[in-house]
C-alpha cells in the first residue's frame, strides 16, 4: 500500500476495506486536479485566500470524535461528562463549537477562562485546573461562578478559602490526586506518578489532609476526585489501573471520612495517530475497560468525567505551508524548507514529535524521494519532519502537515519576530476565518520606547 492509502486510512479510522471503498475515500479527499480536500474545501484555494502558514480545522471531525466518546459511554450505561481539555487549542471559536456540542471544558489559566467566557461558553460547565492558580485567577473563577475548581495544593486551598470568605460565595471543588501511576509516554507528559508537580500525593497522606480541610469548609462543596496519568497513551492498562486505584482510594477515604465521591474524573491523555508507528486505542476500548472496573469494584458507581483534548482536535487539524528553498547534499537527504516551523509547531523540537505530510497540490503524484522538512527559524533544531517521502517538489508547492490540531496554535510563538498564522474552520464545504493572521504592527503594539 502507498502512503496515500495509509494517510486516508489513518485519517478515517478505516482498518477493513476493499478497493472500492478505498477509491471512494481517496476521491472524497482529493479533487479532480489532485488537490487535498478538507471536508469538501480545496486546501489549495484556502492558501490562495488566506495565505500561509495556515491552520485549518475540519470541524466535522471534531464533532464526530465527541459523538464517539458519547456513544462509548452510553453503550456502557455510565453517567458521564466529556470535558474538552482546552489547553490543546483555545480560541473563541472552538469554545463556541463545544457549547454547540453541549460538553464541558476545562481551562488552566485566567486567559483560557477569559476566552471561554468571551465566547459565551456557560461558566457552570467550566472546570478550572492548574498547579499555581493566582489569587486574581481564583477571584475571577469565583466571581464568574465556574462549575468546579480543581484544587491542586495546600496553598491553593488557603487562597480559595480567602476568596470565598471575602466574597461570601460557595463553589464546587475537586481534589486532584497523584495516585502513583505512571503512563507509558514521553517523560515530560507523565503526571500521575508520585514524583510530580501536580496534585495531592496519596501515599504520603497529603490527600487525606487536603480532604479533611475541604470537608471542614462549608463554602467548598466537594464534588469528587481527579487524576490524570499522562498524555499520548496508547494502551488500556494504564486506564484500568487508574480506575482500580481511584476506587481503592475512594473506599479508603469513605471508611475514614464517610464521604463517597459524586464524580471521579479520570483525566485525558488518549493518544492519536501522528504517524504509521502510532497505534492508538479507540474511545470504546478504554471506556469499556473503565466501565467494567467500576461496575465490578463499587456498588454505587460515581459519574465519570474524562478530559480529552488532543484526541478531539488533533486529528482535525492541518497546517498548510508553501515550500521555498531547498538544500541538496551529495549522499544525504535533501532539506526542503517551508515558510513556518517551530514558531507554529514547537512539538518536534520540544518532544521529538513525529508527523506526516503530503503535498496538497500533488495528491495524485507518486512519492519519488525522501527529504527533511525544515522550518525558517534560526535554530538547527527547527526540523518539522525527518525522512518524509514526497513527490518531486517545487518552489510554491503547498505542503500539508497532518494531525496538527492539538498544541500547534496554542503553543505558537513570535520567535524571530514572526507573526502567528491565521486559523480557518471548515465544515461541509464551507470555510470561515476564525483567527486573523498577526501583522508586523501586532508584533510591536505592546512595545514602548526608551
Automatic annotation (TrEMBL):
Named cofactor requirement(s): pyridoxal 5'-phosphate
GO MF entries: diaminopimelate decarboxylase activity; pyridoxal phosphate binding
Pathway field: Amino-acid biosynthesis; L-lysine biosynthesis via DAP pathway; L-lysine from DL-2,6-diaminopimelate: step 1/1
Catalytic activity, as annotated: meso-2,6-diaminopimelate + H(+) = L-lysine + CO2
Positions of pyridoxal 5'-phosphate binding: 269, 307-310, 407
Chain residues that bind substrate: 310, 347, 351, 379, 407
Entry keyword Lyase: yes
EC identifiers of the protein: 4.1.1.20
Keywords assigned: Amino-acid biosynthesis, Decarboxylase, Lyase, Lysine biosynthesis, Pyridoxal phosphate
Chain positions with N6-(pyridoxal phosphate)lysine modification: 87
Keyword Amino-acid biosynthesis: yes
Enzyme class: lyase
Domain Orn/DAP/Arg decarboxylase 2 N-terminal: 61-313
Active site (UniProt): 378
GO biological process, one term: lysine biosynthetic process via diaminopimelate
Function field: Specifically catalyzes the decarboxylation of meso-diaminopimelate (meso-DAP) to L-lysine.
Subunit text: Homodimer.
Similarity comment: Belongs to the Orn/Lys/Arg decarboxylase class-II family. LysA subfamily.
The protein, known as: Diaminopimelate decarboxylase
Gene giving rise to this polypeptide: lysA
